[in-house]
Amino acid sequence: MSILRGKRLKDQPLEIAKFTSSANTDQRIVEHVISINIAHTLSLLREGAIPRSDGVKCLKALLSLDPQKIDIAVSDEDVHVTIERLVSELAGPSGGFLNLAKSRNDQVATALRMEARRALANIALELCDLISALLTKAKAEQNSLMPYYTHLQRAQPTTVAHVLLAHAHALERDLERTFFVLKNVNLCPMGAAAGCGSTIKIDRKRIAKILAFDGVLQNTIDAVATRDFVLDAIFVASSIMSNLSVLCEHLILWSTKEFNFVRLSDEHVSTSSAMPHKRNPVVPEIIRAKSSQVVGKLIAAFSIVNALPYGYNLDLQELNALLFDTFDVTQQSLKIATQLVQKLEFLKESLDRATKDHSLCSTDLAEWLCVEKKIPYREAYHYVGDAIVHGDLKADKAQTLSVLDPQKSVQKRATEGGPSKLSTTFQIRALSAKIFKVKRRIFVKLKIFDEVPLKISQEAKKEVMNFDS
C-alpha cells in the first residue's frame, strides 16, 4: 500500500503512475535527499519535537542507506517517498516521524539547489580551463597577423592573439555570471514545509548551515514555489553555449580551404563516406548544435513557469530534466572545447597572405591624412575609398609605405584592449591572474559542497552513539 495514498485513494494504473513519476530524474538527487532528511531529523531531535528513541531509529535507517543502490519505485512517485518508505521499513513505526514539519515541496527545492550549486561550480571550473587554454594559445600567437572581419568581410589588421582574447573575455563574463547565479542558488528552502512553514519549531538557519548553504530564503511560499534559480542556471549555461557556438563557428570557417587559417587535430574531425579528401569539423559542429539545444531548454523552462499560480505545482517537476541535461551538455561541451583549442594549429603562411591586402589599413591612411595633412576625416575617408575603388591604393610611396604596413598598424594600436603586443600581453597577464584566483575559490566551494554528506553523517552518528551509550 502506498505511504501517501493509503486507503483514501485507489492505486493508480501503472501507465499514469509512470506518467507523473519523477523516478528517472530523481536518481540524481538521492544523496542530497538523504542528507536533507538527516539534517531535518537532527533538528527535530534538537527541538525535542519527536521522541529521542524514534529519532535515533530514523537516523540509523538513513545512515544505512547507500545512494548508489536505491531504486526509486514508480509506485512511490518520487525519491522523497522512496526514502520515507525505506526508513519506515528499517525503523518501523518510528519512520512515520520522518516527514514531520517538512514536505516534498521544501525538500525537492533544497535538493535541486544542492545539485545545481555543485554543477555550477564544476561548470565554472571547466570555464576556467577553457579560458586558460585560450590564453596559452593567444600568448603563442601574439605576433601572428590576421584580418579582423565585419559582415564576414576583411576589415582591419589584428592578431590571432587579439581574436582569441576576445573569446576569452566573453567567457570570463560568463564565469562572473556563473558565480552570481551560484550565490543566488545557495540559499536554503528547508523549513518552509509545504509553503507556510510549520507549527513545529524548526531552526531554519541551523539546517541551512549544516547543509552548507549561505543562508535561507526569507519567504516560505517563495522558498518552495520559485524556480528562478533554475531559469538563472539554464540562462547562464545558454550564454556559455552561445559563446562556445561563436568560437566553434570561427573554427569551422577558418578550417575551410577558403580561409585555411587553422588546422583542427585529427581527433576533432571526421571524413566523408564517399569523398576521401574531406576533413569535416564534426566536433565544433556538434558543439554548435548543442548550443541551440540548450537555448531551446531555456525557452521550454520559461514556458513551464510562465503564469503558474504561486505555490507548488507538479509542472515544476518537468524542469528537473531540462536543468540536469543542460548541466551535462554544458560541462561536456566546455571540456571538449578546451581540448579542441589546445590542439589548434594556426597556419602562418595563409594568415600572412590574407593580411597583405593594403585595404585592411584604409582606416589608418584616412586617420594619417586627417592628422598629418589636416584634412577633415570624412574627406580623407572618401579620398581613400575612391583610391581603393580605382585601384590606386598602393604602398609604393615612401610616405604611405609605413601607414599601409599591417604589422606596424597593429603595433600602433595601443588602445587599451587593442591588438598591439603591449595590450595583448597585459590582457593575458590580467586574465591569467584572475583565473588563478577564481579556480582556488571554486576548489574551496566544491570541497565544502562535497563534504556535506560526510559531515552530516558524522553528526548523526554522534547523536546515535550518545543515545546508545
Automatic annotation (TrEMBL):
A molecular function (GO) term: argininosuccinate lyase activity
Primary location group: cytoplasm
E.C. number: 4.3.2.1
Residue ranges of every copy of the Fumarate lyase N-terminal domain listed in the record: 17-296
Catalytic class of the enzyme: lyase
Keyword list, A-Z: Amino-acid biosynthesis, Arginine biosynthesis, Cytoplasm, Lyase
Pathway named in the protein's UniProt entry: Amino-acid biosynthesis; L-arginine biosynthesis; L-arginine from L-ornithine and carbamoyl phosphate: step 3/3
Gene3D superfamilies: Fumarase/aspartase (C-terminal domain) (1.10.40.30), Fumarase/aspartase (Central domain) (1.20.200.10), Fumarase/aspartase (N-terminal domain) (1.10.275.10)
Subcellular location(s) per record: Cytoplasm
Domain of life: Archaea
Cellular-component GO terms for this entry: cytosol
Similarity comment: Belongs to the lyase 1 family. Argininosuccinate lyase subfamily.
Protein name per the record: Argininosuccinate lyase
Organism listed in the record: Candidatus Marsarchaeota G1 archaeon OSP_D
